[in-house]
Amino acid sequence: MESFDLLMNGLSAAFGADMLLATFLGVVLGLAVGVLPALGPAAAVAILLPVIVQFEPATAIAGLAGVYYGAMYGGAVTSILLGIPGESASLMTMLDGYPLAQRGEAGRALGISIFSSFVGGMIAIVLFTAVAAPFAEFAVRFGPPEMTALMIMALVFSTALGGDDVWKGFVALGLGLWLGTMGLDIVSGLPRFDFGTVELLEGIEFAVVAIGLFGLGEIFVSISEKTERAERPSYTFRSLLPRVNDILVTWKDWLMGSIVGFIIGVLPGAGATASTIFSYSVSKKMSKHPEEFGKGSLSGVAAPESANNACSYSAMIPLFTLGIPGSGTTAIMLGGLLMLGLQPGPLLFEQHADFIWPVIGTFYTGNLILFVLTILLVPVLASIVFIPTQVLFPIVTGIVLYGVYGLNNSIFDIGVALFFGVLGYVFKKLRYPSVPVLLGLVLGPILEQGVRRSLIMSDGNPTIFFESCISVILLLATASLIFIPLIKKINMIRIGMN
Fold first, then answer.
1. Distance, CA of 97 to CA of 93 (rounded, Å)
2. How far is CA 61 from CA 156, 178, 322, 362, in A?
3. What is d(CA 434, CA 166) in angstroms, rounded to the nearest whole number?
4. Of 45, 92, 162, 400, which is the most exposed, with the fewest CB atoms less than 10 Å away?
């Protein structure tokens, strides 16, 4: 009952002028970002970090969250109309959406994608409201040893499950952990890895690294890759409205996709792309006509669209309740929360109820706004992709560099952002994941603090990490993720030698 009252208060605050405006601007920008192949929600959120520190925390995070789940809507537009995924989570939508558009059913495909996105988001928001507070109450039991084990598990799980090559992921994670040690030692106060520069005494700025790796890195990659322009298929405004018959035919797909997306979103490192692939596969297995998938099946549009939107909301559960990002975008949002002076974790719901419940309230208003706006703005969104890159990229780059300079009025920060922009380009070309770098940078200092506090509590006895049932379970789960695949690989090598 108390949670219901808090939610009502949050919804009331979400309808305030500032919150509505922030949510509206966030989802509109998210729609545009989802359409553009050059950017993604992570890059957009990173670029906005210098801006959000000037606003109230609830207003700022409402806008960033709007960009995140708004991008999930926008990505379907060009995937269906042009066969160009706006971001990676829209790839599965393209498999059936584009064939539908090619045979003259673009409006029908867009209609079911918009409806599935709305339903998937709404189901996830309701589940989020129901489980987030109890989840946080349980997490309050975590002391320094448990939080240390949790940080280790989060870093390992996110790295191991977030990329194609596990070892490349751990190399990127190592870089992030090293970056997190720059600056003054948290206990002794001595400088570490400052290279004799005053600018690094306070550590390396998270926003600068995020903007470089994702914002500038993605732009550099897009400049180096030439994409052919596709012809725009025709559709009518009326055809964009979801058909009742299509909704009834695909109800199992969007319901299943919503649940799958919600569950996968809570898992650190899995991400929206994994949820769309899994939901698409399950939908195909459930279908009476699996042969239609990939050739223009409405189920092949409904399942991934509901999954990626559900995933965008549920990925924020571990972010708010444990301080663990469930995706690359929420990793950047974690940095934003810290920049705003908020410490995500179990106590967030208790100590900052005036922040968290209005933000949850904006999820409801934002999802409704998106449903209407996507239908109204489809023609505009589809035309964005035709803006010449030689016009678009200089404008975006200029805005990015101005934002970086505005953080500390520092030319040094611009140099750091450009360096990490080049590094992001190199990582992309060599297929190294960038997300573990940010995870190491953000969670590394928290992990170090947990280790030191635990050892201080036990007078330096490391067995304290094995005295708690919770920490033992978390450490065993982490070890299993590392050693089980390693043992299997060794056995395969032995079999091959024999």
1. 6
2. 27, 28, 17, 10
3. 13
4. 400
